Every structure is written in C-alpha cells, then in structure tokens.
C-alpha cells in the first residue's frame, strides 16, 4: 500500500467517519495529488450490501459537481465479473461473487494502466444487474481525471493478485453495516433482479453470507472505517445508501 495509506493507518487507525466529511476527505485526496501531477486511487471495500457502490457514485457525483466534470471517475470491481458463459465453463455459476468468479488479473491490469496513462480515455466495464452480466466500456477515466474511486468486495484481500491491487490504492475505506441491514438490502436487490424471495434467501445464505464473512477479515488493512448507519442521509444530497 502507498506510504500515505500506511501513515494514515498507523496514526489514525480505522476511524468512524461522519458522512458530511466524506466528500471533503475524498476532495483532499484528489487535490493533495495535484502537486505531484499524479492520479489518486481511492478504494472502498466491505461485505455485500454494505453500500459500497452507492457511496462511490455519490462521491464521484459530488466531486464532479464541486471540482469540475470528469475530475473524479468510478471504476467498479463488479465490471470484472466473468461472464455467465465463462462461469458455466468453469463450473462457478453457483459461486458468482466469490474471488474466483472475477477477472482479478484484468482488474489489476486496468488499475495499473490508470496510474500511468494520462493522455487517452480509459474505458472500464460495469455490471448490469438486470442482465446479470458485465458490460464493456460503461465507465470512462478521462485524461484530466484526478481521482478514481474503485469499489469491490476483495480490495483488502491479502492473497495474490488482490494484494497487488491493495498496494496501488492511496487510501482504502471499509464500508461497515449491520448484518441485518445488509440482509434486507440484498433481499431487495435479488428480488429486483428477478429471483423469488425463496431463491434470494438461498443465494444470500449460500453465497453472499460466506463471501461477506471472508471480506470482513480485511478490515484491519483499511485506512478508514465508515459506518453505514451514518450514511443514510447526507444534507443536500439525499440518501447515499
């Protein structure tokens, strides 16, 4: 992990953060790198249903409003889900969302490209929950983008190649939520995606819950902890969860 992140973890270990300060903290990271003409990478991690993607999109929206369009960009790990055809080939469809179901090396390669390439648009895939498939080129990092916010379950994982991902991040925030709150969100997500409540419950029990327990092991590797209870309302910005 970068020296800034190591220092933050040592001097201010995993603080709980008021939501009104989150945009300011992200802006500080964005603007702190301009003197070095570098691009900052902020990672958000936490178990399924913690609110990672919603917070990431909120931060990007607010930074682009206050700092200028395209200043911040969103790069989700979910875009690197293997397609269902590949999961079927590997007999991993029932473990979708587990570490092995991602193109982790492809994700790492794109993050490395983001850190060094400054003169071209860089396109990143997203994930369509209605299709239950990744979608190429959904997000863009532009030459003038100064902060890339990436989020996903396994950014604090200490096993390769995930450990190399963590080393690229200037800061890594852990998004924390009560298990009951996450369970409710996951149920809504899966039902909205077309599963029956019974099928959704089976998926949460057999897949999301084990993955979530594994993700929790990485909490101590993060530079900051954000409690989901603090994120429900942001003044002037509505709900971010």
From TrEMBL:
The lineage of its organism: Bacteria, Bacillati, Actinomycetota, Actinomycetes, Kitasatosporales. Keywords: Kinase, Transferase. InterPro entries: P-loop_NTPase (IPR027417). NCBIfam families: PRK09270.1-2. It comes from Kitasatospora gansuensis. The keyword Transport does not apply. This is Pantothenate kinase. One of its GO terms (molecular function) is kinase activity.
